[in-house]
Design brief:
The chain has 328 residues and is an alpha/beta fold. 30% of the residues lie in helices and 26% in strands.
Length: 328
């Protein structure tokens, strides 16, 4: 097998394509031949040593992937060789094969495309857990999505629309805003060319937005919070902008509003049954065509450094999917 190995925590430059012995599975493990892996923002943080957990060096990044089971350990019964699966393993996906714990492997329902499956659970799981579980979003409410053309942003637009909400999508270019409109956003705001607070005031007047979905943070957070409605919920998803914002505490008081932390990875660990139930709900939405990963491009795995460069330059609309070169 081959893998992009991260040998030092110096960012994407520390990745090298290396040959490794193809592993045999332990009793509770599964070996998967990878067919597709998607790039998520934490795949950047992990090779910079800035993510919540640090795998032992060297490791292959690539948290989310899909493929066909090649071999299973003696104690594994829920998947078998030849089966199509999605895997959420935290790392290991930017490779031709991976050996992972059986618990991290989900059999795919018939009709679930392998490339979609590689770009699904991370973003849609986060968006659904945030909007439906943590914010208890109701049909008819208004949701503001920041960084709306990114991975979790595009998923949040689709999940919010499927829940019957009105969506205001905000992003940094007209092309990104155009994508958001195509995905069903009711209103779009280009926050690079318009003052966010002014645009939100003119869109929502005195009512404000019921839910803010914020994967960007930084200077966008305060104007977004100032536009929140009475009893609004501000979902803290991430800080792709690089700055963790600070907020004057009188603002939540004045709006009777909540700041709600969202940590999907720990939700998966702490509430595995609730997560499985949620993924079933999302799978049904996929089957009905109500959610579908937005794939900007499918690149050969050999072009992973270019994929990282595009992520760092905010140049991805939706998600990038990497496919081992021999399978393209
Ligand atoms: N809490 C959780 O459970 C959870 C789960 C998954 C992801 N996350 C977090 O959510 C955030 C977004 O993840 P993602 O996979 O959606 O990433 P992504 O696809 O790269 O999207 C991030 C968006 O953030 C905006 N952005 C603003 N400043 C940026 C900068 N300096 N560099 C890069 N992007 C910038 C960009 O939109 P514009 O150009 O339009 O501003 C970009 O489209 C990350 O911080 C990630 O760690 C959290």
């Amino acid at each position: 097998m081959h893998a992009w190995l991260c040998e030092t925590l110096d960012g994407p430059a520390s990745l090298h394509w290396r040959e490794r012995p193809t592993p045999a599975p332990g009793a509770d493990e599964v070996v998967v031949k990878i067919h597709a892996a998607s790039l998520n923002f934490p795949d950047l943080l992990i090779v910079q040593g800035k993510y919540q957990f640090r795998p032992e060096l060297p490791f292959a990044p690539g948290a989310e992937f899909s493929g066909i089971v090649e071999a299973v350990g003696d104690a594994v019964s829920h998947v078998a060789p030849g089966q199509a699966v999605a895997v959420l393993a935290g790392s290991g996906g930017f490779a031709t094969h991976a050996c992972v714990k059986a618990l991290q492997v989900m059999p795919l329902p018939a009709g679930f495309a392998l490339r979609d499956a590689a770009a699904f659970a991370f973003t849609y799981g986060t968006a659904h857990h945030a909007l439906v579980d943590r914010a208890a979003l109701q049909a008819g409410e208004t949701v503001l999505v920041l960084g709306a053309a990114g991975g979790v942003g595009t998923a949040a637009i689709q999940v919010a629309k499927a829940a019957g909400a009105t969506v205001i999508a905000a992003a940094s270019t007209d092309a990104k805003c155009g994508l958001c409109r195509d995905l069903g956003a009711d209103h779009v705001v280009n926050y690079a060319s318009t003052e966010l607070r002014v645009a939100l005031k003119s869109l929502t007047g005195a009512d404000g937005v019921d839910v803010v979905f914020d994967p960007v943070g930084g200077h966008l957070a305060e104007p977004a919070f100032r536009a929140i409605a009475w009893r609004g919920r501000y979902l803290v998803i991430g800080f792709a902008g690089g700055q963790i914002p600070a907020l004057p505490w009188n603002l939540p008081l004045l709006k009777g509003a909540s700041i709600v932390g969202v940590f999907w990875g720990d939700f998966v660990r702490r509430e595995p049954e609730a997560n499985v139930h949620m993924l079933g709900t999302l799978s049904a939405l996929y089957e009905r065509g109500l959610v579908k990963p937005v794939i900007d491009a499918v690149l050969p795995m050999s072009r992973l450094p270019e994929a990282y460069e595009r992520l760092e330059n905010r140049a991805i609309l939706g998600k990038l999917v990497l496919v081992p070169d021999d399978l393209l």
